TrEMBL record:
Family: Belongs to the universal stress protein A family.
Protein source organism: Pyrobaculum aerophilum
Domain UspA: 1-128
Database matches in InterPro entries: Rossmann-like_a/b/a_fold, Universal_stress_UspA, UspA
Regions annotated as coiled coil: none
Official protein name in the record: Universal stress protein UspA
A Pfam family matched in the record: Usp
Gene3D superfamilies: HUPs
Length: 128
């Protein structure tokens, strides 16, 4: 059913749960996994931090015996970068965490998962 799964990872607890779910799905379907971390700050320091965060997810997946095909670190608007990468890699499923932000934070900050769900051309699994 799924051959290519994208995990959007930011190091949060919900993202860690998304890695667990993606791992189980990848094993069940024999799928490859792609990892993306997006930094909203294009500075070298932020991108280096994002690389470490993305590698954390890849290491967790590999430790469970899951094939990680690619690790991407992008700078920009998270939802846009996740969706662009999903199209580039022609993934079948996007798995990401939901942070459970308060209503005020959601209003001010927007919701990456909500934006991805509403604009994605493939199924999106949001993990709490």
């Amino acid at each position: 059913m799924y051959k290519k799964i994208l995990v959007a990872y930011d190091g949060s607890d919900h993202a860690k749960k998304a890695v667990e779910r993606a791992s189980a799905l990848a094993k069940a379907f024999g799928a490859s996994v792609y990892v993306i971390t997006v930094s909203t700050d294009p500075s070298q320091v932020s991108l280096e931090k994002a690389k470490k965060i993305a590698q954390e997810a890849a290491n967790a997946l590999k430790a469970k015996g899951v094939n990680v095909d690619d690790i991407a670190v992008r700078s920009g608007t998270p939802a846009t970068e996740i969706l662009n990468y999903a199209e580039e890699k022609e993934v079948d499923l996007i798995v990401m965490g939901s942070r459970g932000l308060s209503a005020i934070q959601r209003l001010v900050l927007g919701s990456v998962s909500q934006a991805v769900v509403s604009r994605a051309r493939v199924p999106v699994l949001v993990v709490r």
